Structure formats: structure tokens, C-alpha cells
Amino acid sequence: MKLPLLFLSFLLLLTISCTETKTLEVTATAYNSVESQTKKGDAVTAAWGDQLKPGMKAVAVSRDLLQEEGIEHGSELQISGLPGTYRVLDKMNKRWKKKIDIYMGENVKQARAWGRQNVEITWEID
């Protein structure tokens, strides 16, 4: 009986120790779910089909972060200067590099006040 429990404990420890935390400085802007900020005319559907709603802590990331840094759809990011955790639910046009776009619902004034800032993002990869 003790051997299976010991084995399961070892597997749990191995799984926990395989997680790596990464930090990177990126340029951060903000975006809103308004018609003028989308090409498709559908201001609430993100690139992977997620439905954005005001109040969500969501972020779009440049595609180089997806391809080179281990960030994936659904990854959770911490953004320096902002409380809480943001979920990657959108991706940006391929022309952008080392950039995130923070979702700010329909509050265009808040997004403009944010402007463009350099921030550090932190996330975990397996």
C-alpha cells in the first residue's frame, strides 16, 4: 500500500518541478470590443473564437510570442503594474513583435489613457 502512494507522490513532485516561469519585457497597448477596432465587423469574437465580454481579463499577444516563447491560447500572464492574471484569448496581426494588447471592454477612454507602455509579462510553461 505504501509503494503506490510513494510512486504517486514522486510523479506529482516530478510534474511540479517541470514547470518553468518566464519573464519578458514587451510593449503593451490596449484594445476594445468596438466596431472601429476590428476588420471583421465582429467586435466580440477573438482570433480563436473566444467571446470577449467587458470585465474579462484577456489579452492578445503577438504571434512571435506564440511561436518562440511557449505562450499558448489560454495561457495565463501576469502583467507588471496590473493586478490579477490575464488569459491569452486573442492573437495580433503577424506584423507585430514582442507586443501584447490588453482587452479593456468597451471603455475606449480607458484604453487611450493606457496608451503604449513597456511592461514585463510573466507566465509558466511546461
Automatic annotation (TrEMBL):
Residues 1-21 form the signal peptide. Keywords: Signal. This is 3D (Asp-Asp-Asp) domain-containing protein.
